[in-house]
Specification:
This protein is mainly alpha-helical. The chain is about 55% helix and about 0% strand. It has five helices and no strands. The protein has helices at about 10, 15-40, 45-65, 85-105, 125-140. The chain starts with 8 loop residues before the first helix and ends in a 26-residue tail after the last helix.
Length: about 160
């Protein structure tokens, strides 16, 4: 992120603190506001997890469209190598995939009480948490590479050279 500023360091080196500290810090404020809003909107349990997923996806959407837009490092980008999940992007977009990812990643927190003496999660919260986590892992499979035995010929750029 800083190397382009060092091409002409005499003119652009003063921008390095902005590129290293202020830009990432400013973009992190969107997610910070989302997590703060999720804690204020829902008291505890499964609704807080749903509020976190909605607020996170909304913050990513706002960050990707407000001002000049920086839709970089979205949570939904983590699924780019999983072919079974990619058709879902056509239905809901990367922001919907970010919503599902945050919801599935945070859902195990519904299984644990918020503090000592808190009520245990209800039956639907446990089922929803386990099914969301299982569904997020169901499509993951390590891609296999096939060995190729085909031979490729060598093409020459000179039309007069002999070909083998």
């Amino acid at each position: 992120m800083v190397f382009p500023l060092l091409v002409d360091a005499g003119r652009f080196a003063w921008m390095i603190p902005f590129a290293l500290i202020l830009l990432p810090g400013g973009l992190a404020l969107f997610i910070g506001v989302a997590t703060w809003a999720a804690t204020r909107l829902a008291a505890s349990g499964g609704f807080r997890i749903l509020a976190l997923a909605v607020a996170w996806a909304a913050a990513e959407w706002i960050r990707g469209h407000a001002f000049t837009g920086f839709p970089w490092n979205l949570v939904g980008y983590t699924w780019i190598d999983v072919a079974a999940v990619l058709p879902a992007v056509g239905l809901m977009g990367v922001y919907g995939l970010s919503f599902l990812t945050v919801f599935a990643a945070a859902s195990p927190a519904a299984l644990v009480g918020a503090r000592r003496g808190a009520a245990l999660p209800s039956r639907w919260q446990r089922h929803l948490s386990c099914s969301a986590h299982s569904a997020s892992m169901a499509g993951y499979k390590k891609p296999q590479r096939r060995a190729t035995t085909r031979r490729f010929g060598c093409a020459s750029s000179k039309p007069t050279s002999p070909r083998n």
